[in-house]
């Protein structure tokens, strides 16, 4: 074997592998493709109702309100009463405003509040809506028509042993069962004992007569009914009222379930009056309206002087406002020296001495006249420079009359005039 050197080996200026720019470009393209595929797959496989666009794709019913998700909702369900200045409480007031425009010219204002399945927040929604309407001065009654799993009486802290079921079978009178709550403009009728035939009781003639009586006595009549898909109670009751509100929980209700809910209402020839979205995310594209990432709340310092009334339900001032502003600064009795200053003694200044009269000008000699006539320029007389001021106002510096002393003394103008007059008097005497 014979080895021959063809060319000299040359050290490369850049590594052959890895190619960093090429790897970054390929990684970016692959990442974008995988992310797009995952988003399309999630959108295709996700069957839950996420937001407003999903509801509008299933029903033309208007969305009259959106309630943001709150992890503490089970601890304080009555947010309108517990924290009236919170953003979630304000969302219920927005729901109240939109709810008051439902029905148009129809004088009946009786509504059934239901949902597709349990756990979507229908009882919490109807309770806070009723409180918000009562705070606005409306005469409201809320009835627990869920005769299978009633929760309204426990949420409002009322006795629920007797109620709607006892009224429908004629065991008790309405005036003995209705219970006032809060400020007095909100009444509550609990569900009572759970009957063996809830659907038959809700569809009886006694129920029709009760609804007609309530519509004449109250401005708004709200029924908390059972979910539509498991049982038919809400569908039966919806045929006797003026409208139905469907509560939909974001991320919990499936599109197929909501579609079946709307189909069940169409089967009884009922059109939903509105949809209320609950458990909405606080941020993101699925947030209702403008989202809940902002707040327009009052400063706690501005509302610290206001306390809620225990009986009337309206705010009242903690203390009456003062009629006159308080005095500022020390009084004359405490600090008399501040207001009455002692009289200062008068300072007498020496009388000004008139300067001596100037001597008459001497006649100019003849020889000087000739020089002036020939054009000789007279000597210039420079004006005396005024004394330089230093320190405080109206003060000048004069040389001391003591010989062999180079010190300077600070003297006022009045004292300088007095010294000048004394020196002039001495020179005249001499």
Specify the CATH architecture of the domain at 54-290: 3-Layer(aba) Sandwich
Helix-strand pattern, N to C?
Answer: HHEHHEHEHHHEEHHEHEHEEEHHEEH
Give helix % range: 25-40%
N-to-C span: 142 Å
Q: What integer is the average pLDDT?
A: 77
Organism: Naasia aerilata
Keywords: ATP-binding, Membrane, Nucleotide-binding, Transmembrane, Transmembrane helix
Pfam families: CbiA
InterPro entries: Bact_polysacc_biosynth/exp, CobQ/CobB/MinD/ParA_Nub-bd_dom, P-loop_NTPase, Wzc-like_C
Question: If you had to describe this structure to a student in words, what would you say it looks like?
Answer:
- Keywords: ATP-binding, Membrane, Nucleotide-binding, Transmembrane, Transmembrane helix.
- With 430 residues, the chain is an alpha/beta fold.
- It has a domain at 54-290: Rossmann fold.
- Helices cover 33% and strands 14% of the residues.
- It contains 15 helices and 12 strands.
- The strands form 3 sheets. It has an 8-stranded mixed sheet with strand order 1-8-7-2-6-3-5-4, sandwiched between helices.
- It is flat and about 115 Å long.
- Mean pLDDT is 77; it is low at 290-295, 303-342, 369-376 and 389-408.
Write the layout of secondary structure elements.
Elements: H1 20-45, H2 52-56, E1 63-68, H3 79-82, H4 87-99, E2 110-115, H5 122-135, E3 140-144, H6 152-156, H7 164-168, H8 174-177, E4 179-181, E5 186-189, H9 198-202, H10 205-217, E6 220-224, H11 233-238, E7 243-249, H12 255-267, E8 274-280, E9 306-308, E10 315-317, H13 336-339, H14 366-373, E11 395-399, E12 408-412, H15 413-429
Parallel strand pairs: 1-8, 2-6, 2-7, 3-5, 3-6, 7-8
Antiparallel strand pairs: 4-5, 9-10, 11-12
């Amino acid at each position: 074997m014979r080895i021959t050197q063809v060319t000299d080996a040359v050290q490369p200026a850049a590594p052959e592998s890895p190619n960093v720019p090429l790897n970054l470009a390929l990684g970016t393209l692959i990442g974008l493709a995988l992310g797009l595929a995952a988003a399309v797959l999630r959108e295709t496989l996700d069957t839950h109702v996420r937001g407003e666009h999903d509801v509008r794709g299933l029903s033309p019913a208007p969305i009259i309100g959106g309630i943001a998700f709150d992890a503490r909702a089970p601890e304080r369900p009555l947010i309108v009463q517990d924290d009236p200045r919170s953003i979630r409480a304000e969302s219920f007031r927005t729901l109240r405003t939109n709810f008051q425009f439902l029905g148009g010219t129809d004088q009946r204002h009786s509504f059934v509040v239901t949902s597709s399945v349990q756990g979507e927040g229908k009882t919490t929604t109807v309770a806070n809506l009723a409180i918000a309407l009562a705070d606005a001065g409306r005469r409201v009654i809320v009835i627990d028509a869920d005769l299978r799993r009633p929760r309204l009486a426990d949420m409002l802290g009322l006795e629920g042993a007797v109620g709607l079921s006892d009224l429908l079978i004629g065991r008790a009178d309405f005036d003995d069962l209705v219970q006032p709550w809060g400020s007095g403009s909100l009444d509550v009728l609990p569900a009572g004992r759970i009957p063996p035939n809830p659907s038959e009781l809700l569809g009886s003639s006694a129920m029709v007569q009760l609804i007609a009586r309530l519509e004449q006595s109250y401005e708004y009549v709200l029924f908390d009914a059972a979910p539509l898909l498991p049982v038919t109670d809400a569908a039966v009751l919806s045929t006797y009222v003026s409208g139905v509100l469907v509560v939909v929980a974001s991320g919990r209700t499936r599109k197929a379930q909501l579609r079946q809910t709307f189909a069940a209402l169409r089967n009884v020839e009922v059109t939903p009056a509105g949809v209320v979205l609950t458990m909405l995310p606080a941020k993101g594209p699925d947030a209702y309206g403008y989202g809940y990432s902002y707040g327009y709340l009052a400063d706690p310092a501005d509302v610290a002087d206001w306390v809620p009334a225990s009986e009337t339900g309206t705010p009242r001032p903690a203390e009456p406002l003062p009629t006159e502003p308080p005095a500022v600064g020390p009084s004359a009795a405490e600090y008399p020296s501040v207001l009455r200053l002692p009289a200062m003694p008068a300072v007498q200044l020496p009388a000004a001495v008139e300067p001596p009269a100037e001597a008459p000008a001497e006649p100019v000699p003849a020889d000087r006249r000739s020089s002036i006539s020939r054009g000789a320029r007279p000597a210039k007389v420079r004006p005396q420079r005024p004394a330089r001021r230093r320190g405080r106002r109206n003060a000048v510096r004069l040389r001391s009359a003591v010989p062999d002393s180079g010190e300077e003394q600070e003297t006022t103008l009045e004292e300088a005039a007095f010294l000048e007059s004394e020196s002039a008097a001495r020179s005249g005497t001499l």
